[in-house]
Amino acid sequence: MTNANARTTITTVTLNAAIDKTYYMPAFVKGKVSRAAKVVSTAGGKGLNVARVLKQLGHAEVAATGFAGGYNGQFIVNGVKEAGIRSEFVAIPGESRLCMNFIDEGDGSSTEVLEPGPVIGEDQLERFKRELQRLSAESALVVFSGSLPGGTAPALYAELIALSRAAGADVFLDTSGESLVRGVTALPSFIKPNEDEIVSLLPDSHDGDLREGIRKLMAQGIPIVAATLGAEGAVAGAGGRIYRVRIPKIEPVNTVGSGDSFVAGYAYGHVRGWPIEECLRYAAAAGSANALSETTGDVDPREHARLLREIAVEEWL
Ligand SMILES: Nc1ncnc2c1ncn2[C@@H]1O[C@H](COP(=O)(O)OP(=O)(O)OP(=O)(O)O)[C@@H](O)[C@H]1O
Ligand SMILES: [Mg+2]
């Protein structure tokens, strides 16, 4: 018999995976030829950040799925495998996205160019759903992260959440805008809105009372709501209680992917059945450790352990 508690795999879903390519140049001038001194390419996408950080934190069984197409798709799949993550990406026609970031080392500016990515056809989506069903049936937890690809409906996450849950997996959702608003109607176990995302979830809450907002979301049937506030830590709700997560002041290097790292840290504790306070501490330490690294979705376990000792979680009465 399948016992959900005996499952250890965490599956992350990245429907809009990309190659993140960063060009470091002495100067970037619009309309002129610029020469890059250094180029760094990584397999990108929010779910892949979660998967990578889970591995860095020491979770053994991590699988990653989504769509991968063309040479870029092959690069993404190779990157996933090199990180020790099981690649379960569904091959699609066309080319996965390339997202370019031009860093001007003179003035420190960053100029991004983001490709739209391939449009997903009906057949490919059906194939993906079958894959997700199979993976969910062996996973303790499925984490859905990031934006939806072109050609898909904004309610897609709601449908996928229902599918994973029916296969016996627990479900987390971390996305934004319309896909978040529609996704929460399927009542994922955990959501992690940042400051902007909280506003889109609670458009009528003008009073800015975060505690009330979190209580409303819990009343809708979402068991764990973690609102992350960047350098200000986080406020979370679970089991009818509200918690304040206080983090130490650090000198951030690159905070992109700190939310994804927070999700990874929370997932690590959640599948182990840790108490909420411990999950939140682990999560916030991962978010802050990521902010100390130049690379997106990168947690040094030693920094994580050090930060963990400096984070306090208390009930906010
Ligand atoms: N400047 C910072 N200093 C210290 N810790 C930070 C900082 N920024 C983020 N963190 C840590 O990371 C967590 C998540 O950050 P944040 O609220 O910025 O997520 P996010 O906007 O969803 O990020 P992303 O979507 O890029 O992954 C915070 O709760 C905190 O623990
Ligand atoms: Mg985020």
From TrEMBL:
Domain (Carbohydrate kinase PfkB) ranges: 15-298
EC number: 2.7.1.144
Gene3D superfamilies: 3.40.1190.20
Substrates-to-products reaction catalysed: D-tagatofuranose 6-phosphate + ATP = D-tagatofuranose 1,6-bisphosphate + ADP + H(+)
UniProt entry keywords in alphabetical sequence: ATP-binding, Kinase, Lactose metabolism, Nucleotide-binding, Transferase
GO molecular function, one term: tagatose-6-phosphate kinase activity
One Gene Ontology cellular component annotation held by this UniProt entry: cytosol
Pathway annotation: Carbohydrate metabolism; D-tagatose 6-phosphate degradation; D-glyceraldehyde 3-phosphate and glycerone phosphate from D-tagatose 6-phosphate: step 1/2
GO biological process: carbohydrate catabolic process; D-tagatose 6-phosphate catabolic process; lactose metabolic process; small molecule metabolic process
A Pfam family annotated for this UniProt entry: PfkB
Family recorded in the similarity comment: Belongs to the carbohydrate kinase PfkB family. LacC subfamily.
PANTHER family, per database record: 1-PHOSPHOFRUCTOKINASE-RELATED (PTHR46566), ATP-DEPENDENT 6-PHOSPHOFRUCTOKINASE ISOZYME 2 (PTHR46566:SF2)
Protein name as it appears in the record: Tagatose-6-phosphate kinase
Natural source organism: Cohnella phaseoli
Lineage, uppermost ranks: Bacteria, Bacillati, Bacillota, Bacilli, Bacillales
